[in-house]
Write a structure and sequence with these properties.
Strand content: 5-15%
Helix content: 25-40%
Distance between the termini: 117 Å
Number of strands: 14
Largest sheet: 5 strands, parallel
Structural class: alpha/beta
Number of helices: 6
Radius of gyration: 32 Å
Shape: elongated
């Protein structure tokens, strides 16, 4: 109707948006206030995901994928499938190269660093699963996924677990456990001492012919 005021956003959506901003301020030392958090690179991925997820649940799969692709472009490479389930106060740091698959479930207060993958093993394995069987990980509450961590398949990551940077996980991880990648070896290379200069052949002293023959024989 003309003159009718537009409806306000649901209070739940507003509260969730505020939580997203507060989490960025709390976990990113470089961000000190909400207005700075609005420019965080991962924020577009989270907000477009929530919209895309709602469309996905209503059966609008094509529109959901379109919104998800826009979020990936705006965030610099955070790809969250609209079918994935994300909890509250999920923090994606840096927002680059993160992949979260369709059937992945992420709990509350989870921290995800850059280049983390929550994916499937591969079509050669998944095509043999029963219809509707889960293909992606379930991540419990308060889990930390370090930079470059890869979690593949229908595994369960227990609450409060820590998946270290570069770790590959293909089996269940108990609650509170730590998974670390092999550390890099540091080899200290000491400088090689310079070789003493070659003085060259020693000149023979000024001798007579007979003395020269004896000198050469002694050498």
């Amino acid at each position: 109707m003309p003159g009718r005021r537009p409806e306000r956003l649901p209070a739940r959506a507003v509260a969730t948006a505020r939580e997203d901003l507060d989490v960025i301020v709390a976990r990113d030392p470089s961000v000190r206030r909400r207005r700075e958090a609005l420019l965080h690179p991962a924020l577009p991925a989270l907000w477009t995901y929530r919209l895309a997820h709602g469309l996905h649940l209503r059966g609008h799969r094509l529109a959901a994928r379109l919104v998800g692709n826009l979020g990936r472009l705006a965030s610099g490479g955070v790809e969250i499938h609209p079918g994935a389930t994300l909890g509250r106060r999920v923090f994606v740091d840096h927002g680059a190269g993160v992949v979260i698959g369709e059937m992945a479930v992420v709990g509350d207060d989870v921290t995800i660093y850059h280049q983390v993958t929550l994916g499937a093993v591969g079509w050669w394995r998944d095509n043999g699963r029963a219809p509707g069987a889960r293909r992606h990980p379930v991540v419990g509450d308060r889990v930390v996924l370090g930079a470059g961590a890869t979690v593949l398949g229908p595994v369960l990551i227990g609450a409060d677990a820590l998946i270290g940077a570069g770790a590959l996980v293909t089996e269940d991880v108990p609650a509170g456990a730590r998974v670390t990648a092999p550390p890099g070896l540091v080899t200290v290379r000491r400088p090689v001492p310079a070789a003493a200069p070659d003085p060259g052949p020693t000149a023979a002293p000024d001798l007579t012919l007979e003395e020269s023959i004896e000198y050469a024989a002694d050498r």
